[in-house]
Specification:
Number of helices: 3
Shape: globular
Strand order of the largest sheet: 3-2-4-5
Oligomer: single chain
Largest sheet: 4 strands, parallel
Number of strands: 6
Order of helices and strands: EEHEEHEHE
Length: about 100
């Protein structure tokens, strides 16, 4: 299981399959929620996850693929695009401090 301390998160990627729609809304929401934390939020297709990603947020159906593209990177998977508890926990941990685990 991969882990990272919240203070070490500088780049968060929202990875999706097609690159449009709900995941773009999630990336926008995360940018707003993490404003002022120093965390850059970017949106990319799952096959184009950048090597400098610290955390990847992706739908549960894409988590295995994301892990293969970005081995060793913390992958946070979710079931619903807006309001998912896993994403809420990630945001809270980044803001308050702590360890994020895959």
């Amino acid at each position: 299981m991969s882990t990272i301390e919240s203070k070490d998160i500088h780049k968060l990627i929202v990875a999706c399959d097609a690159g449009m729609g709900s995941s773009v809304m999630l990336a926008t929401t995360l940018r707003k929620q993490l404003k002022g934390t120093g965390v850059e939020v970017a949106h990319t297709p799952v096959n184009e996850i950048p090597a400098d990603a610290d955390v990847v947020v992706t739908h549960a159906g894409l988590a295995e693929r994301a892990g293969a593209i970005a081995p060793g990177t913390v992958i946070v998977s979710f079931q619903i695009f807006l309001g998912d508890p896993a994403v809420t926990k990630l945001v809270d941990t980044i803001k308050k401090g702590g360890t994020v685990s895959a």
